[in-house]
Amino acid sequence: MTDDQLQRVLDAVRTDLGDPNTWGAPVEMRDSLALCALNSVHSLRAGTPSVRRVLRHYRDHRAAAGADPEKDSGPDLRAVIDAAGGPVSFSGDVTQNHSKLPGTKRLRAEGIYEALGNLEQLSITTAEQLREHAEDDDARRAWTRVTGLGPLSWQYLLMNAGVGSLTKPDVMIRGFLRRVLGRQVSVSRATQLLTAAAAELGVEVRALDRAIWLHESPSGVSAPTTTSTEERA
After folding, report:
1. Interacting residues of 9 by C-beta distance below 8 A, sequence separation 6+
2. What is the pTM of this model?
């Protein structure tokens, strides 16, 4: 990363995204590992509207059962999946989303169920415990060894839980950087650029990440004005 590259990114951010005070709060489901998992996994190569529908359906389902989805743990979500009859029925009856994990034939609910089970074996069942283990290699491996999940979904899981020092440089983030710099940008280089740019702007890197993502979103969302409880996709 050169000073010129960083300056070009900063210039583009200021031109395209405007004042950071207008960006809105980063996505955060600070007290619900269940919502963090649903948002992270359903955001993989998916648009904003589909992810919002998934979370709305899940929240409505839990509210109808007299539960508070904003407090749901990982085991709570696994129990809901079990009660629905497993990942297939859960995908049809609860989230109403049968999309597959990228590059696989597995339902997203299957990956979520397995990954949360892996974390539970490490006694990580809440968003608070996830934050405490954000730099734990065993926790990262427990999530990323699930077929269809990977480093970016892990980073976004942590971001949803309230870890502000991370970015999820997916296709749209790197597309923005490619356009600004005139060249392909690796995940590691994108991470360096966004982290440095965020420091220069005095914002959390996850806030910059989200603002760029929303600007680039094909769903037509151009102004990041949602609150912290809403989902990025």
Report:
1. 177, 180, 181, 193, 194, 197
2. 0.81
